[in-house]
Fold this protein.
Amino acid sequence: MASNDFLNVRVASKQMLSKDTALFELVAEGDQQLPPFSAGAHVEVLLPGALQRTYSLCNPPQERHRYVLGVLRDAQSSGGSVAMHEQVHAGQRLRISAPRNQFALTPRATHSILLAGGIGITPLLSMAWQLSHEQVSFELHYCTRSAALAAFAPTLTDPRLAPCVHLHTDDGPLDQRIDLSQVLGKAQPGAHVYVCGPQGFIEAVLQTATQASWRSEQLHKELFKAEPISTDGDTSFEIEIASTGQIVQVPANQTAVQALTAAGLDIPVSCEQGICGTCLTRVVSGTPLHRDQYLTDDEQAANDQFTPCCSRAKTARLVIDLAPI
Ligand code: FES
């Protein structure tokens, strides 16, 4: 089933949860079990047209017979979600990566507050299943613009989840709208906050939490879309491949990934916005100009890795190591 960390799977079912949200159930060929995953994990899906996109797994992590992905069709996106909606159907074979997790639950938290904006519910749903399974204290807040857009609301009526779920819609009565100050209250030692959704939603949660004295290590986020990056003033720089000494020129109007790909060097990418970490590459020398939202401030300050899909160089040359991190 697997080769080079990628798996062959079959789309067992595709179900429209709402006008724009589809649920894909992926199973292994035959009756094989799939590799285990942990709550908050995602897979990379290889799509027609050489697209590769990241989708969170939203089913209970105890399940080994399937991976379930929820995909919002976004016509403004660079094509991944539209390809999933229009070109991926039940019965079709797909290649996906093994599950990876950059948004894992913190073990032994005394309480978890899960805050979902729109389709950001998907990784938090698998967290809710996991916390419910472990009988650990949690609350899940699912925020959408309207009830019609709350595609996962029926799933959240499951008795294992419902007592811990709060639905909030922007167009509903005032008393059910999310009040972040109230939800986050005062920082609780031992508790952790997880947020996933649009950038503005994440920023509001993190700002409110910080004001309420939550410490940064208690706050966990997963972005779906990065803020636009200004490329005004970009200049060219050189990349040297540590293992071969090959020099690749990165012109001002290209990303490092584009220049490396044009030189025949293969860098895996997914979001191409600096949020997923798929392209993360080790830096041997030189100083990157970090533009990602994936690395922490401390990791960026170490300057020993960068995301070549969007980050550049402060120095004339970066020496990089192409071995997988
Ligand atoms: S491809 Fe996602 S961070 Fe570079």
